[in-house]
Amino acid sequence: MMNADDSDTYRSLNAKLRAPRTMQTKRTVRTLKLICGLTACLLPGGLFAQTSDAKKLMVREKFVEAAESYRAECMRQSAVACWSGLGAALMGQKAHPQAVVAFERALQTAGTAAPARTRAALHANLGLAYLYDRRQVQAEQQYQQALKLDQNCVPALTNYGIYWIKAGQYERGKKLLLRVLKIEPDYFFAYLFLGYAQYRAGNLESALALMDRARKLNAGSFELYYYRAQVRYKTRDPGGALADLDRADRIRPGNALTGELRRKIMREHLR
Question: How far, in Å, CA of 170 to CA of 191, rounded?
């Protein structure tokens, strides 16, 4: 159930859902290129090394090759950008313990003299690596530290919000994601996981509206179609659910999650 102090924000959000599509920000596009897995985002490209082939490899999701390139770069010159890039590449490989080490090196290299906004983003990256490494306590500590340094740190707000939503603390997570939309009104991950939270809370119509808005911002997301297929299945729209699973499979072929849901729908639909 929505808290009273969220009502104005949700009314504003609903108005945006009826508005025409707007352009993504460049910052959001950079973030999407570095997304790793089912949770949200790493820091946008600003702190990652912009030289050599590593950046192109990351965009192409050649994470093993990108990690090798970043390691070589780090051997030549230890820098925040290099360690951050290595951490992102390792996250792409699902080498989460090693990613933790790389992001810790990025923080150590930055030191306390680095701007608060920079350190906040680095703490957010480290928090995501901890979360994927199933170290929830450490992840939460990193998100809290990031927000102490920069209360408008979008990666920290997003990932911390998703952390709470996946933990079943929907209202707590939604508050953080609504803060994200006040900072970046067209932020894909905020809409996607606000929709997911609404789905988990049983508000299916609202969930679909939020996910449809997310699709206008990024039509190439596996997570979007997989989550929307779940919502459509619950709204007794098996055809729509299967169509979304087809879209998800084109993006990430052979995924076990889509296969399991597809079999469930087919069993019930063919009775």
Answer: 14
Q: Note whether residue 7 is domain-resident.
A: no
How many domains in the chain? 1
pLDDT tens across 203-242, in order? Answer: 999 999 999 999 999 999 999 999 999 999 999 999 999 9
* Distance, first Cα to last Cα, the chain: 35
Beta-carbon-side half-sphere exposure of residue 19 (alpha carbons within 13 Å): 13
Cα separations in angstroms, 158 against 16, 153, 194, 217, 250: 19, 9, 10, 16, 26
Whether 1 is covered by a domain: the verdict is no
Residue whose structure tokens are 């790493």: 42
Helix (H, G, I), strand (E, B) or coil at 94: coil
| CA–CA distances in Å: residue 145 to residues 40, 70, 85, 87, 176 | 18, 26, 21, 19, 15
The verdict on residue 201 lying in a domain is no
The CA distance from 97 to 178, in Å, is: 31
**pLDDT tens-place string over residues 134-169:** 898 999 899 999 999 999 999 889 988 988 888 889
Domain that holds residue 138: 25-150
Domain membership of residue 35 (yes or no) is yes
pLDDT at 159: 87
| SS3 state at 134 | coil
Judge contact between 162 and 189, C-beta under 8 A.
Answer: yes
CATH code, domain carrying 107: 1.25.40.10
The predicted pLDDT at position 268 comes to 84
